[in-house]
């Protein structure tokens, strides 16, 4: 188990390094002149040369990448002398637009994204998995057909379309909900829920359909297993047969897929936030894209990549904990 | 292959998603027929876009400020998004361009990108999957690792980042390349698995024993048997590509104006959604309907090809 | 009165296949009945029908266990019987045991389904049962998972699970088919020994005439869901009345006779629907 964990972490570290290198190349090598971008339009050649020097753009590529990596893991100092700027760990650079450290921007935007993501995840897991399991237990019933048709609709509905529809119907036409805005859970819990319910539902709708289909398929397969028949043959109550013997194996793949979706969730949160105008990490990224603020885009990408890679490791470990066969095979 | 162990675990689970849900009924068959017809109509409409717009007497790029009401901040004249005999689906607020023509040309762009990207990923996935599964050895090791890497890659975020710094020219081609590149491992994995098991199946062994060479085996025995699974992957890849392209264009990193695509049209409609809901509803409904139709079709193809689906 | 009386039992599956067709037999307390036949003859379906474990199939006729008709029994009545008075050992222990739970727990769970005892006590029963079926180091093995056991050991676990409540009837559904010949002999020996100790009646389903000879009091030969021949084992082996039984017996290669040029096979049967 320890070796397994270490090996997974090693692979994750390698993956992160590859992602770092790729993003670095994309953002600092592909554009014509990052210094020009950093400085803006009205900018003299003298100032550009100075920025180029501060960012270290004259030095060889591997050197630039090296200092970038050092910055991420230990912090770095741009420039020398009076003009030098220290960027503490973890240094993802400074925004071209606001000159704030990217890391601080990320950290201040994170709570909004996290509350959208967690709320949506809880919603879709509860609704999707429950609907799928009930469908599996009542295969062919009206409920089953209706739920599966709804699920297919759900997975075909793009997030931004749902978001626009919700806003148009619930906010503009019916006036049942306020426009979503950033409210702290701790200041005004009711307003927080009112504000978050649309983003949660929007994001959850897509995944609930996916999970209902997944849970149904797994549960149907699980219910047909020999060991479920054994459990019945032992005289266990039907509730124990279903919950203990059929549900547990069916949930293992669901957990795995969920772990992988934590990564996709960020992409979804990005779109959700930008439609509802909520100031999360996603909004930060979409604003940065619109203003070509490359250090911020790079920072968000790396942050997201790191999150996804670590989530994948966590999933593999949870998988090993859930399934004794995997645990002993490694 | 190592059974349900280590890194195969999450990938296995991913492939589970493409497994049959198995709801078969008359209703499902009818839904499949409707979907197929809808897709064909859409394809024909996309192909005939120049003819259709000519018939309607419009163009996707002509500005018609006469259809707008300057007093209302550029909203279309008359209700319902400015639907009139001149503009069958109304006009774009602010510019007065004809929505029917823009949506039609947007359909062309969105479908073309999705189909081309699917073609790229399926061809790439089939070739590399075949090489990996049929020849094994180091080819399999390398291709397998690359597929694992790509599938655990945060691809959407990465696509957004990549497209945001990419040059403004040839966005459509770039989208096809990016979508195709990140999509091929899904086809690749399935083809690899099938090729591996097929090349050990009796009829291939028999052909080998009869002295067939590798090429005959590959093209005569293995490839024809892969048609089914590849068709399923392709059918399900199309809606995924449509949705991803629309998402990227919606975020402003996909297709850029003046070229229309569904996602791009919806993005343009966001500032107007409260005053002129038809502007986002029309391309949105088309996008939803198309993705749904392809998903229904994909399910049907899979159910038809998966013998296990029948009993469930 | 017999412990188990089956009369006019028919099982029809949803797709119209008639797996068992008007089958009748009975089984006395303390005796062993072997049901033999080729695969698809309906012998396994019969054993599942007794436990009411055939969802989606239409079961008709009577299965009387100790005076109660199981075909008409309510689900709760059936559940109370399963495991407690009628237990079953399946063919493939690897798939019949839940891979997610320790074997000790799976046995304890069977015990606790019918006895209101604390988990710890049930676990002690499980360890005792594992010891009784000949699993070395039962304390430790009880905490292991099915995939950590060999095929023979897994089948011992299944037997321990089936016998932990001392059922009156044990159904063994091809319990040795998936095992090596030497392990087969061990498991058969174990079953025979436990049967003698507990006095349990056994319904033994097999396609192996060799197994029948060593174990059975009575034999029921099945083909296409119907009973072909029934009688005491000595009589059936010595003078089989039906050509099909003769054919089945002829299929068994004998060590005390010269090997024929071709092993005998059973002639194919017309389809019965």
UniProtKB/TrEMBL annotation, chain A:
The chain crosses the membrane at residues 12-30, 112-137, 149-170, 190-212, 254-276, 296-322. InterPro entries: BPD_transp_1_N (IPR045621), MetI-like (IPR000515), MetI-like_sf (IPR035906). GO terms for biological process: transmembrane transport. Residues 110-319 form the ABC transmembrane type-1 domain. CDD domains: TM_PBP2. Keywords: Cell membrane, Membrane, Transmembrane, Transmembrane helix, Transport. It is a multi-pass membrane protein. It is found in: Cell membrane. GO terms for cellular component: plasma membrane. Its main location: membrane. Belongs to the binding-protein-dependent transport system permease family. This is ABC transporter permease.
From TrEMBL, chain B:
Belongs to the binding-protein-dependent transport system permease family. This is ABC transporter permease. The keyword Protease does not apply. The chain crosses the membrane at residues 34-56, 109-137, 149-167, 173-191, 278-297. Pfam families: BPD_transp_1. Its main location: membrane. Signal peptide: none annotated. Gene3D superfamilies: MetI-like. Residues 107-298 form the ABC transmembrane type-1 domain. GO terms for biological process: transmembrane transport. It is a multi-pass membrane protein.
From TrEMBL, chain C:
GO terms for biological process: peptide transport. It comes from Solihabitans fulvus. The keyword Amino-acid biosynthesis does not apply. Belongs to the ABC transporter superfamily. Residues 4-249 form the ABC transporter domain. One of its GO terms (molecular function) is ATP binding. InterPro entries: AAA+_ATPase, ABC_Ni/Peptide_Import, ABC_transporter-like_ATP-bd, ABC_transporter-like_CS, Oligopep_ABC_C, P-loop_NTPase. It is found in: Cell membrane. It is a peripheral membrane protein. Keywords: ATP-binding, Cell membrane, Membrane, Nucleotide-binding, Transport. It comes from the Bacteria. One of its GO terms (cellular component) is plasma membrane. Pfam families: ABC_tran, oligo_HPY. This is ABC transporter ATP-binding protein. Gene3D superfamilies: P-loop containing nucleotide triphosphate hydrolases.
């Amino acid at each position: 188990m320890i070796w397994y964990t270490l090996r997974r972490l090693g692979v994750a570290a390698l993956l992160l390094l590859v992602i770092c290198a790729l993003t670095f190349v994309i953002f600092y090598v592909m554009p014509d002149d990052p210094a020009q971008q950093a400085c803006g339009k009205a900018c003299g050649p003298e100032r550009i040369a100075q920025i180029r020097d501060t960012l270290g753009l004259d030095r060889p590529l591997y050197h630039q990448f090296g200092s970038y990596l050092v910055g991420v893991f230990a912090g770095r100092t741009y420039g020398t002398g009076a003009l030098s700027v220290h960027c503490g760990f973890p240094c993802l650079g400074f925004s071209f637009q606001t000159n704030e450290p990217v890391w601080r921007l990320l950290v201040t935007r994170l709570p909004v994204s996290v509350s959208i993501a967690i709320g949506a995840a809880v919603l879709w897991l509860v609704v999707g998995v429950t609907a799928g399991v009930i469908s599996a237990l009542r295969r062919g019933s009206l409920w089953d057909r209706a739920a599966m048709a709804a699920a297919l609709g759900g997975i075909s509905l793009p997030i931004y379309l749902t978001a626009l529809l919700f806003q148009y119907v619930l906010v503009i036409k019916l006036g049942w909900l306020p426009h979503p805005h950033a409210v702290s859970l701790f200041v005004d819990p009711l307003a927080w829920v009112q504000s978050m319910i649309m983003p949660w539902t929007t994001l959850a709708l897509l995944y609930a359909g996916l999970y209902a289909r997944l849970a149904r398929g797994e549960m149907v397969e699980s219910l047909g297993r020999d060991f479920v028949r054994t459990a019945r043959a032992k005289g266990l109550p039907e509730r124990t047969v279903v919950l203990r013997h059929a549900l547990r194996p069916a949930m293992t793949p669901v957990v795995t897929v969920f772990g992988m979706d934590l990564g996709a969730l960020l992409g979804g949160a990005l779109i959700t936030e930008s439609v509802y105008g909520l100031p999360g990490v996603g909004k930060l990224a979409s604003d940065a894209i619109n203003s070509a603020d490359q250090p911020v885009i790079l920072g968000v990408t790396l942050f997201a990549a790191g999150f996804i890679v670590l989530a994948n490791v966590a999933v593999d470990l949870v998988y090993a904990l859930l399934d004794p066969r995997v645990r002993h095979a490694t | 292959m190592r059974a349900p162990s280590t890194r195969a675990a999450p990938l296995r689970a991913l492939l589970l998603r493409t497994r049959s849900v198995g709801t078969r009924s008359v209703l499902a068959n009818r839904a499949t027929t409707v979907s197929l017809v809808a897709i064909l109509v859409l394809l024909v409409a996309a192909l005939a876009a120049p003819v259709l717009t000519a018939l309607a007497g419009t163009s996707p790029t002509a500005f018609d400020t006469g259809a707008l009401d300057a007093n209302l901040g550029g909203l279309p004249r008359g209700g319902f998004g400015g639907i009139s005999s001149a503009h069958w689906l109304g006009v774009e607020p602010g510019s007065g361009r004809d929505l029917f023509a823009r949506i039609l040309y947007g359909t062309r762009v969105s479908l073309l990108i999705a189909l081309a990207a699917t073609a790229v990923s399926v061809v790439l996935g089939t070739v590399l999957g075949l090489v990996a599964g049929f020849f094994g050895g180091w080819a399999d090791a390398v291709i397998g690792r690359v597929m694992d890497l790509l599938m655990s890659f945060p691809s959407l975020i990465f696509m957004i980042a990549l497209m945001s710094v990419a040059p403004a020219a040839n966005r459509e081609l770039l989208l096809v390349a990016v979508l195709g590149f990140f999509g091929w491992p899904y086809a690749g994995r399935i083809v690899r698995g099938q090729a591996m098991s097929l090349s050990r199946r009796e009829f291939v062994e028999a052909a080998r024993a009869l002295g067939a060479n590798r090429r005959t085996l590959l093209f005569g025995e293995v490839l024809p048997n892969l048609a089914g699974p590849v068709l399923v992957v392709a059918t399900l890849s199309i809606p995924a590509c449509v949705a991803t392209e629309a998402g990227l264009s919606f975020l402003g990193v996909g297709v850029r104006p003046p070229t229309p695509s569904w996602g791009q049209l919806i993005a343009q409609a966001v500032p107007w959604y409260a005053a002129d809901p038809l502007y986002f509803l029309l391309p949105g409904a088309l996008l939803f309907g198309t993705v749904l139709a392809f998903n229904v079709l994909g399910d049907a193809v899979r159910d038809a090809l998966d013998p296990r689906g029948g009993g469930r | 009165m017999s412990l188990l009386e089956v009369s006019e039992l028919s099982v029809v599956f949803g797709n119209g296949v008639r797996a068992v067709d008007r089958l009748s037999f009975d089984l006395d307390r303390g005796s062993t009945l072997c049901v033999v036949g080729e695969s698809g003859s309906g012998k396994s379906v019969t054993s599942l029908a007794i436990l009411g474990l055939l969802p989606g199939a239409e079961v008709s006729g009577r299965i009387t266990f100790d005076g109660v008709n199981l075909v008409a029994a309510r689900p709760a009545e059936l559940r109370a019987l399963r495991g407690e008075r009628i237990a079953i050992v399946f063919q493939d222990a690897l798939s019949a045991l839940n891979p997610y739970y320790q074997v000790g727990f799976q046995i304890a769970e069977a015990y606790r389904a019918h006895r209101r005892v604390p988990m710890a006590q049930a676990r002690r029963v499980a360890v005792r049962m594992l010891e009784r079926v000949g699993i070395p180091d039962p304390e430790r093995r009880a905490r292991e998972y099915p995939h950590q056991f060999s095929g023979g050991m897994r089948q011992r676990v299944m037997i321990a699970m089936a016998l932990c409540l001392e059922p009156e009837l044990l159904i063994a559904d091809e319990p040795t088919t998936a095992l090596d010949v030497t392990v087969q002999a061990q498991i058969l020996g174990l079953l025979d020994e436990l049967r003698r100790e507990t006095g349990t009646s056994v319904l033994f389903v097999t396609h192996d005439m060799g197994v029948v000879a060593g174990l059975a009091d009575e034999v029921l030969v099945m083909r296409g869901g119907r009973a072909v021949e029934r009688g005491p084992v000595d009589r059936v082996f010595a003078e089989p009345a039906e050509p099909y039984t003769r054919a089945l017996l002829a299929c068994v290669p004998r060590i005390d006779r010269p090997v024929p040029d071709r092993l005998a096979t059973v002639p194919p049967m017309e389809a019965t629907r």
